[in-house]
């Protein structure tokens, strides 16, 4: 039986405690997986939090982010700090697409969904 509906900070608290007990990350992951089952944090995140607590972090809660910088999007290696920057970049990218790009895509849908209907949904285009 596993613990149901854990909060992220609850699992992080368990990780922090086990790091304090000097348990290795693979044992900590196994403990978390045993206790929380399918609701457990994945291995990569357990190792990441082990490293953070080992490096001196004490807080189990998410870091606070200021308004407007909560969403960061990577596009072409650029990191954006505001929603407005993201909107401007996406709009510019969409305008630079060939005018018939979307029209061609929509035209391709018609034969695809027709084939899908004819085959009772048993159709995957490769």
TrEMBL record:
Ranges for domain Mos1 transposase HTH: 10-56
InterPro entries referenced in this protein's UniProt entry, alphabetically: Mos1_HTH (IPR041426), RNaseH_sf (IPR036397), Transposase-MT_Hybrid (IPR052709)
Superkingdom of the source species: Eukaryota
GO molecular function: nucleic acid binding
Protein name as annotated: Mos1 transposase HTH domain-containing protein
Organism, scientific name: Aquatica leii
